[in-house]
Fold this sequence. Notes:
By secondary structure, this protein is of the alpha/beta class. It is 41% helix and 17% strand.
Amino acid sequence: MVNGVQKEILDRWNIDKAKELYGINNWSAGYFDINQKGEVILTADTRDGKKEISLIDIISGIKERGFDMPLLLRIENFLDSQLTSIHESFKSAIEKFKYKNQYRGVYPIKVNQQQQIIEEITRFGSKYHHGLEAGSKAELIVALSMIDDKDACIICNGYKDESFIDLGLFAIKLGYKCFFVLEMSNELDLIMNRAKIHKIKPNIGVRIKLTTKAGGLWAESGGDRSLFGLTTAQIIETIDKLKEYKMLNCLKLLHYHIGSQIPNIRDIRLGVAEACRFYAELVQEGAPMGYLDLGGGLAVDYDGSKTNFPSSCNYSLKEYCEDLIEIIISTLEEKEVPHPVLITESGRATVAYYSILLFNVIDINRFDPPKVPDKIPDNSNEMLQNIFEVYKSLNLKNIQECYNDALYYKDELHQLFKIGQITLREKALGENIFWNIMVQIVKSSIKLKQKPIELEGMEDALSDIYYCNFSLFQSLPDSWAINQLFPIMPIHKLNLQPSRQAILADITCDSDGKIKKFIDLHDVRNTLPVHEVDDNEDYYLGVFLVGAYQETLGDLHNLFGDTNVLTIRINDDGTFDFDRELEGDSISDVLSYVEYDIKDLSVRFRQSAEKCVKEGIISGADRRKIMQLFDEVLRGYTYFL
């Protein structure tokens, strides 16, 4: 039986409103939804149709197996699906416009270089000959070890020394389609010299600096002053050198990159149009070419607004593919240049949906100021009496005046306390009255047709703080470093209306360890709608679309290490398997990362404890208990248990 209050809430709140509030249907690309129990679900297409799995059911299985929060959850089906979507969309565009060549996708290892991810990309992508991009020797080692498909491309970007080049040359000798992309003009001589020594003909590409720049958080990747790539003059110099070497036939690929997350399709169109002009000119200079690498840039719609906002994109995957193919055809056919093999390095769009960060709320600082007494002592300070009068007289007509007066009297009380004119209790009472005034102003201002500009955003200042079991710097570094927005929401209780507004704080002792910007369809929210939580209740939040870069860039701030990682596979019958389990870092793991000798730490502490035994501070039995705890914590998880 639902009591009266609960029934009233349920009457005006439903699952559709929860979906709208958190925008899940806008940013989820069909991978996530909310069921009638108010739980976030994963939705996967299988051979037996669409299957749904509740995240709460997955967490139950995780806890049964002894894993704790926070946790990074990977869903194999989503990675497979994204690879398929990208390739099939290009295939459809190629057929629609009668493009006379093929598409070859390449995954940039730097986007997320975890072994499991590279293994799955090469496994799921093998039917499409999906390749890898390597920007370092270590990444080239990974690419050569993981790819056995000789039709897949390996693109070598970044700085290259002799051993990097030698390894790539031997890859070519083994039959790999391995390309050296010139990032700087002086790399050509080194490549030619090593090729001559080994008697291996290299596959060479050039990265060009386009004038076109894209908007968004990674705009500096492109433009005339971008970090990598050759200028027009340097390209001419490269062509002339290759002619001198009588090796112009080695120049086969043109590459450019104008941004990791390009929100505006117009910038994409301008970039490829400009690149095609360069490509056509290289062909007319006598280079065989054959490959056009458009780099990354395919955006992920993190906020679901479908706009050119940095955390969104104003185009679909279908539109992206068709626009690229159409422009390449129209530009190159004008110069009677054959259509090249088309390559894109779509890392973010490939892996973003693949991972979810799950964590629990461990404490709450609620903004609930104590109730103001009906009267204050007659001998109270004048300023205290004044602010109390403001509280008592507040109404819709004098909101602005009361707001200004409350700020003034609060500051006066603060100054009086500093010079010893009021007591600590009087100061506390004054602050309590002030915050009650602010709460009443926020509630009343909702009824105003035109809110005074000073009151804008006041409700954000009165939000709760939900302390969460994760490290922002380890698991969501882009949220801190570049203010990237990720979809964040409760993963259960969504059949109930959220009654609180909160910012999220992590468990690092750093004032920057908080999330105070959240996605919204029309703007950026300063708070997250959350539910009231009992002290003995588990409350879980999820951060979605975190598969790109976050694991790669995370650091050991406060020595919080990698989280537990579990991978699931959703089966055709609607069940799911825990495919892989990786335990997160222990305290001893992270201490060893920063060069501590674990045995030495134990010996040092044991000696300190023994000294206390000798001095009679503790007993031998006490020492044994203390050392047992020390060793247990040393072997334990770095996060809150």
